[in-house]
Amino acid sequence: MADFLTATQVVKRFSNHLALDHAGISVPEGSIFGLLGPNGAGKTTLIRIINQITAPDEGEVLLQGRKMTQADVRHIGYLPEERGLYKKMKVGEQALYLVQLKGMSKNDALKQLKYWFEKFEIQGWWNKKVEELSKGMQQKIQFIITVLHRPKLLIFDEPFTGFDPINTNLVKQEILNLKKEGATIVFSTHVMSSVEELCDHIALINNGQTILHGNIDEIRSRFKPDHYELTYRGDTEQLANSLNSAVNMIVQPNRGNIEHVILKNQTGISIREMINRINSAVEIVSFEEMIPGMNEIFIRAVEETNHRTKSN
Amino acid sequence: MSKISLIIQREYLTRVKKKSFIIMTILAPILFAGMLFIPAFLATREDTDSKVIAVVDQTNLTVGAIPDGKYLKFNYVGEESVDELKENLQQMGYYAILFIPENILTSGRVQLYSNQQTTMAVNNHISKALEGFFTNIKLVNENVPVDIIERTRTHIRVETIQWSSSGEEKSGSAELAAIIGYVSGFIMYFFVFLFGAQVMRGVIEEKSNRIVEVIISSVKPFQLMMGKVIGVALVGLTQFLIWIFLTLAIVTAAQVGLKSDSSKQAQTEMVQNIMDQEAAANAPGMQDLSQAQKMLDDIKGRLESIPIVLIIIAFIFYFLGGYLLYASLFAAVGAAVDNDTDTQQFMLPITIPIILALFVMMSAMQTPNSAIAVTFSMIPFTSMIVMMARIPYGVPIWELILSASLLIITIIGTIWMAGKIYRTGILMYGKKVNYRELWKWIKYKG
Predict the structure, then answer these.
(1) Whole-angstrom Cα distance, residue B374 to residue B370?
(2) Coil, strand, or helix at residue A227?
(3) SS3 state at A261
């Protein structure tokens, strides 16, 4: 897959701090890309640079290999973190205005809006003022406005805040649909479970630098700590003897007659060797490598870099 | 449709459709018309009440000296005591009692007793008539023959003639020039504050609604800012035009209504009344009609002496220029703050030049070519008000060109600067901003 969007060596300086310090991402075409990082890491600044809202001091952003210009913004659908609507304006009128600003013709916009309003079953909102809607309802409208002009690139900044679980699911489904239809999606979030669920690729940004970048499965396996979860029937003592000191064993509470331990590979013996040893000692019920969640990876990666910058 | 015209359209329509706009647009002309019409209306009402004033004249000289007005009669009652008349004022149907004391020639005072406030018109009528009369008596006492007195009666009015460098003469009019400068200065002031503040509030609204980032992902911040500035200007112009049109319509309608209402009489009577007073105030012999004709001709002549076309062009130029200049500053202030209450510190530097301009304008109306007036009509932040006060008196062409060029350059610079502040400010939340901070924003790269 070719990279649809790349940002390289992006530097953005504000008066008293460096918001982006040679950060970069590359987003493969048709993927869902998670842009992660702690608060104040520079995610929103990077997103704004991609959206041509601010200009970088150094570095460049390429869209399908070409340098991005102001004219490209109509191929982008952007749902910012700080998002709102005109409170006194009617929903339909407002949606029409905002998508026309993206370059849609009035007729197309009306047709598309009708389709989405029916799909979300909110036809009755058309003539309501925005201030009459709940926050969740407003978020739905904003989501529709963002995707209406069928942009090739969608950027969502914390898309799920303000949604209840039902609507969160609805939006997730829509995001997956959009991907199916060929859109490339970048989204930034703090909710790691949704990252695991949706993203193909991620970048983790901390203190303005990209500290992790790549395919999510690769990253997860890179971070796996060589820990394994084992359930079995048999004598724990015998198992311990068999594994010897090569593997550190932490006994977990057992479930009925099935024993449960976590194994930490300390000397780097192969998995096959480990299984052989176990197999010779006890009857295996299940054996699974413990792959870390994004949550854990996030915390570990950020703490590591913070520690490094402090010791420097 | 281009993006900026979409923005202008929205800014315009949402404001024009607001209830407060519609109410203000309709109500204000009624108020204006009322302000123009009610005093005139009241004047006619008051004067149509016939008033009879009892005159107690201890000198026995003034019978016939005070001419009766249309609704004002003077009834000489002879040697009655004022106290007695006072007690029976109501029963006898008198409006007031005029007491002319014996020593009037030395004291120069008469007394007008009434149980209500007498009108200025009545007071003036009496004083003018008696002044003329007793002046004559004094002159006669000094042995000046009556025919000489008549022949030497003189009225002087000052006609100002102005000549240009080409030697061409034209009669000027200080009053009309002053009025033009004054009115355009105040219109400018109100427009800038009323609608400049609307621009600012619009920016704050977009910022606090958090919609601004959605919009500037589609359009450049500069387009959004200029769209708002232009949209609000159109709202203002719409409102002003409707105000002028409606006020004129109401005044005309009211006049027509009044005419038919009091059997064709009231209107002519009103004019008649004013003429009466004029006539009494000026030479008693002067005929009403010729007087009115003369006044009309005079006004026409004076209008010709004023460079009308130049004034209109200059007004449009300075009006738009001044608005653009200040509205872009207001937009920058709106972008720098989070809410209305934080605007104070930035409002002051905007307010001061305008207020200053108004003060200078007042002085420029008297001395249009003083050093202060000339200087302030060059400074871009005050020129639109001060220059308008000077133009009716005639301004050298090079001064106009200099002032206009300075204004244009400053507008471009200010809009550019405001755009920079705006662009950074609208995405900045929860930060106390000071001038140093603003300076940094101006220097940020696009």
Answers:
(1) 6
(2) strand
(3) strand
The ipTM (two decimal places) reads 0.82
Asked if residue A86 and residue A34 are part of one domain, the reply reads yes
Q: How many domains does chain A have?
A: 2
- Mean pLDDT score, B423-443: 83
Tell me: do A167 and A23 sit in the same domain: yes
A301 in any annotated domain: no
Structural domain of A279: 225-289
Cβ-based interface (< 8 Å): residues of A facing B: 14-15, 48, 51-55, 57, 70, 73-74, 76, 78-80, 82-89, 97-98, 100-103, 142, 145
Count of beta carbons in the 10 Å neighbourhood of residue B250: 17
Provide the sign of the torsion angle of the four alpha carbons A58, A62, A67, A70, taken in this order: negative
DSSP-derived letter for residue A291 is: P
Residues A26 and A172 in one domain: yes
pLDDT digits (tens, 9 = 90+) for B39-79: 766 665 555 667 888 888 888 878 877 888 777 888 888 77
pLDDT one-digit tens code per residue, A287-312: 988 888 888 888 888 888 888 877 65
**CATH code of the region B48-152:** 3.40.190.10
Chain A residues with CB-CB distance to B446 below 8 A: 54-55
CB A287 within 8 A of CB A277: no
Strand ranges across the sheet with B96-100? B72-76, B51-57, B96-100, B111-113
Alpha carbon distance A100, A93 (integer Å): 11
Do A184 and A240 belong together in one domain?
no
> What CATH number does the domain containing A84 carry?
3.40.50.300
